Amino acid sequence: FFSQWKAVKKEINDTGIQMIGDMPIYVAQDSADVWSNRQMFDLDKSGRARQVSGCPPDYFAADGQLWGQPIYNWDYMKETGYDWWMNRLGFALRTYDMVRIDHFRAFSSYWSIPGDAVTAKEGRWVKGTGLDFFNRVWTIFGRDVPIIAEDLGEIDDGVIQLIADTGLPGMRVMQFAFIDGYDNIHLPHTIPRNSIAYTGTHDNDTTLGWLYATAPENRARALRYCGFTGENWSEGGVKAPAVRAMIRTLWQCPAMLAV
Predict the structure, then answer these.
(1) Tell me, what DSSP letter sits at residue 71?
(2) pTM for this one?
(3) 102 is an active site residue
(4) Using CA atoms, how far apart are residues 206 and 242, in angstroms rounded to an integer?
(5) Is residue 41 a contact partner of residue 71, using CB atoms and an 8 Å limit?
(6) What's the pLDDT tens digit per position in 76-101?
(7) Backbone angles phi, psi at 195, to 5 degrees
(8) Mean pLDDT lowest for which of 83-87, 123-127, 139-143, 208-212?
(9) Which of 66, 84, 152, 254 could be cross-linked to 120 through a Cys-Cys bond (beta carbons 3.0 to 4.6 Å apart)?
(10) Minimal CA–CA distance to 128: which of 85, 66, 185, 173?
(11) Can 42 be counted among the known catalytic residues?
């Protein structure tokens, strides 16, 4: 697989296209990583997770989200120079040209849930590694390490400060821009240069699907913002002119990269 991937990636890179890989913040309880590195995770003597991952209740989930992966033993990881993480990052950086770390906010603080909890509501916020982790990243890979910080979801001042201190590009998602007023941070004209801007991610509908499903006032706001006039916004299916207007508008934003 990796021989084939390397050959395909080289052919793609030779055309001037780079590959972005996605790295989940956590790994599964039944993964080889946990099985062979038990001291790196918060496990009991039988190998079961004492604390598991997730996120607190919010607008989208009244009980929060109980993901269930074991929480890291960050104190032990720090003692070992975060070697497990550095190996993981190094492999990803050799496999892709850029690496997007999912749920980046866990480096600031993470939601820790008892392993026997029924819902994520039983969790609590625990302080993360902060800059200490990234000081090690910079020592190993240099300050220009090509990492994207997925800073979506419940973001507080601590996460915002960590993004600023690391200098890593965060994310903005155009579909989030029109669900409230005109001061939304995802509006293309407000997106900072050091960002990766998306019409939508793997968690979102397609742009055409979003236009169909969103509230009429959101759709009207989006189309007005993108300079689309007329009634036939969905005409032509995948070539719908309103979709092209949204793509064109995103391309005009200040972000260093638009997807």
Answers:
(1) P
(2) 0.91
(3) yes
(4) 13
(5) yes
(6) 999 999 999 999 999 999 999 999 99
(7) -145, 160
(8) 208-212
(9) 66
(10) 85
(11) no
